Amino acid sequence: MRSRGSIIGGVAAIAATFVVFVIPFLFIILMAFKDKQQSALRDFSWPNGFHLWDNLYEVVKTRNWMMITAFINSSLITVVSVTLLIVLAAMVGFVLARRKTRWNGLIEFLILAGLMIPPAVVPTIWLLQGLKLFGTLHGMILIQVAYNLPFSIILYRAFIATIPRELDEAAVIDGARPLDVFFRIILPLLWPVTVTNIVVQSVGIFNDFTNPLYYLPGNQNATVQLTLYNFQSQFSTAYNLLFTNIMLITIPPLIVFMFFNRQIVAGMTAGAVKG
C-alpha cells in the first residue's frame, strides 16, 4: 500500500513539474521560432517557418547591441561577486566554526538578521552616492556581495564544523600559519559546498532584476534581466522578439543547473552526511 502511494505521489510530482516548468519553457521556444504575425496569436501552434535566426539577430542588434553589453555586464558582476562571496564567506565561516568567543552569538545574530531583514533601498542609494559608486558596476558588485553573504556564511560554517580540528592542529604543529591552514588545508576540503555556492549564487546574481533596476541605471550598465524589461516596453506587440529575449537569458542558468544538479544536491547534504 505504501509503495503504491509513493508511486502515485512520484507521478503527481513529475506531472506538476512538467506543467509548471517544462510546458512554459516549450512555449517560449515555440514563440521564438515564429514570426510577428503568428506569435501575436499566442497559442501553442507549430511554427509556420524557421524564424529563430532572424529573431535572434533582431534582438541582439536592438538599441545599439544592448544585449551583448548586458551579457558582458551580467557575466562580470556574477564572476567577481561569486569570487568575493566564496573567499569572504569561507573565511568568516572558518573563524566562526573554530574560534568560540563571547562575540559569536552576536555575530551569528547579525548574520541571521541579514537573511531576515529586507534591504533598505533609499539609504543604500544614499550610501552608494556618498561613496561615488551609485550607477557603477563596482557598486553593484558590492551590493550583491553584501546581500548574499549571510547565506554563504551559514553554508560554509555548517560544513566547516564537520571537519576535524585535528587537521588544523597538525598543520600548526608543522609550522603552518593561519592563512596557510585555511588556504592549503581547509579550503580544498570545501569543494562540495563551494560548487553548491557557486551554482546557487551565480544563477541568483545573473538572474537578478530588482537590484540592477534600483542601483544600476543607464543603458551602458544594462544587465540581461533589464533588457527584458526594456524589450517588454519596446516590443509589447512583437511577441516573437520578446520570447526570443526570454529564451536567451533563460538558457545559460538552465545549462548550469543541468550540468551541476548532482553537485548542488551533494553540497547541500554533505554536512549532514558527515555529521
TrEMBL record:
Keywords annotated in UniProt: Cell membrane, Membrane, Transmembrane, Transmembrane helix, Transport
Pfam families registered for this protein in UniProt: BPD_transp_1
Every ABC transmembrane type-1 domain range: 71-260
Keyword Cell membrane: yes
Lipid bilayer topology: Multi-pass membrane protein
Localization per Swiss-Prot or TrEMBL: Cell membrane
Coiled coil: none
Transmembrane segments: 7-33, 65-97, 109-128, 140-160, 181-206, 238-260
Keyword Nuclease recorded: no
Any one GO BP annotation for this protein: transmembrane transport
Superkingdom of origin organism: Bacteria
GO cellular component, as recorded: plasma membrane
InterPro entries registered for this protein in UniProt: MetI-like (IPR000515), MetI-like_sf (IPR035906)
Family note: Belongs to the binding-protein-dependent transport system permease family.
Name this protein carries in UniProt: ABC transporter
Organism listed in the record: Devosia soli
